[in-house]
């Protein structure tokens, strides 16, 4: 058979694809099959070789692992036996039970005093006496009861014994410092508070107590340092801020003083001395916006010095009626002076009281001589004559000109 491949007959790829001999397709198929078989044989050979290698190496691994297993077995056999469990004696058990009972009773007493559960204190004291009658804890709580009753000499004796037997007992040192500071034995109080802080440096009350005594001793730098440390330990310790405010006020540093007074007021300081100190510092420092409120918070006081200062401040603001009320409370006191009585007459006059009311008030002033009473009546007449010669003032909104 003759095949003739002319240029015209196979001029396009399409014609070559459809009219090529079957031998070409068979050759391509044979090559693909041959490559697949060769690849499969190669893969089988590699797998078989890896298996033989593992089989040959297995005995060596077993020989390597066997000594390690034997070594572990020998180590377990050579491990020393545990010592026998210690069995405490009955006396040791009893002593441990007493220590636990002492700690528990002490904690209950601390809670009773801290949260004012005083009805439970006698029972707990009897319990403590039964557990540890001669312990420093017993001596401390006995001293605490004596201090509340005013028997501070006996309390000091108990505390001295407690701190001698337990030098680390910070509560006893602190109470001893309080009693000594109230007795104005300030150097001894300082030593007691320093011992309390030494054995319990993170108690803010102990640190503040030390700062208070240092302030009274005149050591303001050390007092300021301790006071600042106390408010670091307890950020809302109003007493600490109050002490810092007094230190700055003494130095006439009214800016920091008023800031510290404000913090102390924010955290609940409400004592009469605090309010008066804050009032005077605010007046001296020019912070008059807080002065009226502070003066009103001292409305019910009876202290002569406070009443005198309030009358002066109210008079300065032109609130003569309030000034007269404070001076009227001051006059019966033994500390009332002639200047206070004269200021009282002036406050009554400036508050627009009628002359007969002022005269009656002068006649009712207690504990003054007739000569001074007559001088006050004459002072009243002088004030009335002075007002007649003074030109008046008016506000056009309140009193418009007709």
Description:
This protein has 402 residues and is mostly helical. It has a domain at 310-385: Serine Threonine Protein Phosphatase 5, Tetratricopeptide repeat, CATH 1.25.40. 74% of the residues lie in helices and 0% in strands. The protein has 19 helices and no strands. Helix 6 runs antiparallel to helix 7 and helix 16 packs antiparallel against helix 17. The longest helix is centred in the N-terminal third of the chain and has 57 residues, at 22-78. The termini are far apart.
The ordered H/E elements are HHHHHHHHHHHHHHHHHHH
Bin the strand percentage: under 5%
Helix content: over 70%
Tell how many strands the DSSP assignment holds. Answer: 0
> What do we call the CATH topology of the domain at 310-385?
Serine Threonine Protein Phosphatase 5, Tetratricopeptide repeat
Sequence stretches where pLDDT stays below 50 over 5 or more residues: 1-21, 50-65
CATH class of the domain at 310-385: Mainly Alpha
What structural category characterises the helix and strand content?
Answer: mainly alpha
Radius of gyration: 49 Å
Question: Average pLDDT value?
Answer: 85
Largest sheet: none
Tell me the layout of helices and strands:
Layout: H1 13-19, H2 22-78, H3 90-114, H4 121-131, H5 136-149, H6 152-165, H7 170-182, H8 186-199, H9 204-216, H10 220-233, H11 238-250, H12 254-266, H13 272-285, H14 291-297, H15 304-316, H16 320-330, H17 338-350, H18 355-364, H19 370-389
